């Protein structure tokens, strides 16, 4: 499923946060949004997933305008892993993952055999079989993040949107989560849109990178075209040397010093 955003403006009360955003994401792509703190990345994700009303513009999933799709239908197509999660973690992995089935249930209906099979499938896909009865609050950071991803998967989405899925995880769990996302994209063809702060990881795991700066889309292209000295200087104010990662076939950089 593809995503098209046209002339999108988003404001919080009278404060304009996103201005005239336009882009198209192809089915099956992994797109990472990067940009300084407060530039509007989370706001963009919320607008695209209709968690936030926007003042101007349109968002299409395939050819369907999200203003004309009801909330439950959106949740069947698109799963969002927000930066801040409001659900209590005082429940088991299995229960959490089963929440992913709610958009598919008719009002008041219980999980069917098929729903339970999908829950098990999502738990299996994320390698959580031996933790399915554990309380989410007893899991490590990486396991917990996998449980949230499993819940999103149980929605059986065609688009998976993740806001900083690796933040607060140590490097080993960061890679574990990114590898899992990549595998899900590969094997299930899910379109992935995520926000990452680690630009070298963005380079390595993305088909394309979108740069958001002060509420505007400044660049959107393949990592080779985005990760360069001038972008790092203009957007993040850092000086860096750029290298080619021969193993992963993507650019990476080593920051030198902060520009005054
Ligand atoms: P990012 O995710 O890139 O760090 P956000 O999209 O969270 O940035 O925020 C963009 C801007 O919008 C920031 O200036 C932030 O303070 C402001 N903002 C975010 N959420 C709200 C809100 N609910 N009400 C008012 N301003 C907000
Ligand atoms: Mg954010």
Short description:
The protein is built from 9 helices and 12 strands.
What does this structure look like?
This protein has 260 residues and is α/β, with parallel strands linked by helices. The protein has one domain (3-258): Rossmann fold, CATH 3.40.50. Helix content is 33%, strand content 30%. The protein is built from nine helices and twelve strands. It has helices at 41-48, 71-77, 93-99, 113-125, 141-154, 171-188, 199-205, 223-226, 229-236; strands at 3-12, 15-25, 30-34, 56-61, 64-65, 78-81, 159-163, 191-195, 208-213, 216-221, 238-245, 250-258. The strands form three sheets. It has a six-stranded mixed sheet with strand order 6-7-8-3-9-10, sandwiched between helices. Strands 2-1-4-5 form a four-stranded antiparallel sheet, covered by helices on one side. The chain has a two-stranded antiparallel ribbon with strand order 11-12. Strand 7 (159-163), helix 6 (171-188) and strand 8 (191-195) form a beta-alpha-beta unit. Helix 3 (93-99) crosses helix 4 (113-125), helix 3 (93-99) runs parallel beside helix 5 (141-154) and helix 4 (113-125) runs antiparallel to helix 5 (141-154). It is globular and about 55 Å long. The model has no long low-confidence stretch (mean pLDDT 93). Residues 41-42, 83, 163 line the site of magnesium ion.
